[in-house]
């Protein structure tokens, strides 16, 4: 996804929400001598235009604020550029962090947000990943779930009545779809995060104790090639390649979703975050989630987690930090901000003061799984920094037949070792 800058009114609304508590800011100014400019790094390309609209609303209500948004995602969603910007003092005022080990790595740039008003409204456990020494350094963006999203009408057309819960059942369903002239999988493997983050995470999530497994990997007491679940994930990858669209390595995020929404493919490995894209491109599409089976042990669990936390740049000017905090508070406390979160972004909120109505079928299933506790964890926030990208690159090489299965498993271990040693 291409990176772009837009000057927006996002901050305008935040400050208005804060006026209810303080009259220190005049509602109207005859003359604005100097504007505060907030730079925001948005990692959600799915809501790029909606986020910009929100900013315009905020700017309109707060003419003393300018917001510049840089939206990144997909292949561009790495942190190398952010590292360089922060190191040079040109970093954004608001960006995102996935928490846990990533929060530790970026701690010098994370402002303490422990005294912000939204803390008391966060659902239990949603702040854990961004807590260090008892302090909170980020505001949870939303709750997300992912798995295989499937087109219910295409499944019915192919005569598939049971949602697959094992890899054998999934392969049988794919074969049935193909026989009916329907491409089973949309495979956008140009995006390394689909492979090295979402797909490979399932091997970690299906461990009996994922945290203990990661600790043993870090201690050198476990080796990835010796764990059968990683080979199982490659088995699933092989099925998607056998029954997927042509040229997966040149199929990007947008193209992949386009294949699915145009009913040129029956399944896509994605999450509830693509609901706005589905609503825009194919509002009548009847979709639902299925789990991600990697072997013949039945599963009905979705992966559900807080994917990102909004953080404030500790190195920013004091005025920018103040306005950034006010904006984040406004986004989750004001009526307009909440409306954008639920109705426009289709986010599953993590704050109990935000009411949810119809967020779409994918969000509904995610919420149901979360409430039942019938979920798998997203474990990548506990990975050593940089390893996800190496996982993804290695899996792309496997897709391109540049690595064998055993070589890929070995690359996983080598990548983990390098990333772990770099942190020591």
UniProtKB/TrEMBL annotation:
Keywords: Cell membrane, Lipoprotein, Membrane, Palmitate, Signal
Listed InterPro entries: Bact_solute-bd_prot1, SBP
Family annotation (PROSITE patterns): PROKAR_LIPOPROTEIN
Name of the protein: Carbohydrate ABC transporter substrate-binding protein
Organism: Fictibacillus norfolkensis
């Amino acid at each position: 996804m291409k990176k772009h800058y837009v000057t927006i009114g996002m901050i305008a609304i935040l400050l208005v929400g804060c006026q209810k508590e303080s009259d220190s800011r005049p509602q109207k100014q005859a003359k604005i001598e100097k504007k505060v400019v907030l730079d925001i790094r948005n990692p959600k390309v799915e809501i790029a235009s909606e986020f910009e609209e929100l900013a315009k609303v905020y700017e309109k209500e707060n003419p003393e604020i300018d917001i510049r948004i840089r939206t990144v995602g997909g292949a561009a969603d790495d942190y190398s550029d952010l590292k360089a910007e922060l190191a040079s003092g040109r970093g954004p005022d608001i960006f995102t962090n996935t928490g846990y080990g990533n929060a530790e790595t970026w701690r010098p740039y994370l402002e303490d947000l422990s005294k912000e008003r939204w803390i008391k409204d966060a659902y239990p456990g949603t702040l854990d990943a961004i807590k260090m020494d008892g302090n909170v350094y980020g505001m949870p963006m939303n709750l997300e779930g992912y798995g295989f999203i499937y087109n219910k009408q295409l499944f019915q057309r192919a005569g598939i009545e049971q949602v697959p819960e094992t890899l054998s059942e999934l392969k049988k369903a794919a074969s049935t779809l193909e026989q009916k002239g329907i491409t089973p999988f949309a495979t956008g493997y140009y995006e390394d995060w689909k492979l090295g983050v979402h797909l490979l995470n399932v091997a970690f999530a299906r461990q009996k104790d994922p945290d203990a497994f990661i600790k043993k990997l870090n201690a050198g007491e476990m080796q990835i090639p010796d764990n059968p679940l990683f080979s199982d994930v490659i088995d699933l990858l092989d099925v998607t390649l056998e029954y997927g669209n042509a040229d997966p390595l040149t199929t990007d995020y947008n193209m992949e979703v386009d294949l699915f929404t145009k009913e040129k493919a029956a399944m896509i490995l994605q999450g509830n975050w693509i609901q706005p894209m589905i609503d825009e491109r194919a509002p009548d599409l009847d979709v639902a989630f299925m789990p991600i089976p990697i072997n013949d042990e039945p599963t009905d669990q979705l992966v559900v987690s807080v994917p990102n936390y909004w953080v404030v740049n500790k190195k920013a000017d004091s005025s920018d930090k103040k306005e950034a905090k006010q904006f984040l508070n406004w986004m989750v406390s004001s009526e307009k901000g909440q409306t954008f979160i639920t109705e426009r972004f289709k986010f599953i909120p993590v704050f109990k003061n935000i009411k949810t109505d119809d967020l779409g079928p994918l969000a509904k299933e995610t919420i149901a799984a979360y409430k039942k506790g019938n979920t798998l964890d997203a474990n990548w926030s506990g990975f050593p920094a940089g390893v996800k990208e190496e996982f993804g690159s290695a899996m792309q090489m496997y897709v391109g037949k540049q690595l064998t299965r055993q070589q890929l498993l070995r690359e996983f271990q080598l990548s983990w070792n390098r990333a772990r040693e770099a942190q020591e």
